[in-house]
Amino acid sequence: xxxxxxxxxxxxxxxxxxxxxxVLHEVGGAPLVHHAVSAGRALNPARVVLVTGHAAxxxxxxxxxxxxxxxxxxxxxxLGTGHAVAQAAPLLADFAGDVVVLYGDTPFISADTLMxxxxxxxxxxxxxxxxxxxxxxxxxxxxKDGDCLKKIVEYKDADEATRAISLCNSGILIAPAAxxxxxxxALRPDNAAGEYYLTDIVELACAEDxxxxxxxxxxxxxxxxxxxxxLARAEAVFQKRARAAAMDAGVxxxxxxxxxxxxxxxxxxxxxxxxxxxxxxxxxxxDGAHIKSFSHLEGCHIGGNAVVGPYARLRxxxxxxxxxxxxxxxxxxxxxxxxxAKVNHQSYVGEARVGDRANVGAxxxxxxxxxxxxxxxxxxxxxxxxxxxxxxxxxxxGQGAMTASGSVITNDVPDEALAVARARQDNKPxxxxxxxxxxxxxxxxxxxxxxxxxx
Length: 455
Ligand code: UD1
Ligand code: CA
Fold this sequence. Notes:
The protein has 455 residues and is of the alpha/beta class. It contains 9 helices and 35 strands. The strands form 6 sheets. Strands 13, 15, 16, 18, 19, 21, 22, 24, 26, 29 and 32 form an 11-stranded parallel beta sheet that branches. It is elongated. The mean pLDDT is 97. Calcium ion binds at residues 224, 226. Calcium ion binds next to loops.
């Protein structure tokens, strides 16, 4: 049986108090809607349709980047969840399979839960995902009769007895496409909100003797994001899961609660992460690498057994070879560091390649930007860059070459040459003593003037 996903993301999310559409707020470095679509993609759907409305163009642009292949349909007025699903009907008119409806602001539905929901479809026409709510609040309530789901009542429309039910609607359901769209066609907005409720299809299905069931999942999976506080809760849930997954895969996290991961961080085995390390998107770390405290990494690739930090900043395009060593207060951007090369103290290396086993001394800077253009620096293998060298790009330092400390290198250095590019030292005998004496006399004179004035 083939499957289509309809992901609802037309709502504005007023309570976020944000110019950014709600579903684009990020958890673990990826928009909420990407988490929702990824969850659904675990079911291997033939089609994925995203219903957009508020800031549709902005949402569609981002989703195209994160989830290529998603089809879009617009809901111009937010007339309710039923109305939102109806917008996908023309796209799926000839679709013979089942439809799973998901919410773009609900990022944690697990693949297992969706499998259970699908399995329930073997014995029923429609299956709805519910959960036992610790605080049912304003969720829709599932009204059952034995194993049968009779109807879903929205909080606004519920009487006291119905509000007392703690089995709540997650919003997620599965139904055959043809049945779903036929029932949705019959929805009427005669309720407290004046909306077309998707949830009303349950009662309509029962009225034509269809069988409807409810499957439950842990409440944590249904966590939806409506406010900044929810967003923070969602981030915490994401981080907890991501850390557990990393440890399961053989990563040592010395203090897991202080390590911040991204949705796509990937680790080899026996990687060690010290406390207080932040991973932005697109970081890959090979076996045995060691990331020391207070390092910040994004868009970079760390080779096997490399050591990074403490206090290192690796920006997009940093690529470390095996056994490379990046020490404290380094900034790397678009920089390839060769096998066993060392950049250990307070350097900036950008738009550059550092050859295998090269050593970049303390305080070295690749001066890669002239205010308009960016230029490259090439450092050959086994080169030695003296401390506080300014490499004014474009420039290259040959294999096995050396630069003298404090040099400003503006011309290419040939292989094995030593480049000295600084003023020669000139010692003036006794001049320091004379200079100090003059200064001290001046100070004494100033102090005696002050004393006379005070008397
Ligand atoms: C909905 C359910 C409720 C359930 C709750 C779970 C209905 C009528 N109610 O209520 O039973 O307990 O979710 O969180 O379905 N959306 C659109 N277009 C619209 C309206 C909504 O795309 O016109 C999208 C929203 O962007 C959101 C999702 O649908 O992603 C849910 O909408 P929301 O307004 O949050 O529904 P609730 O009132 O919370
Ligand atoms: Ca909601």
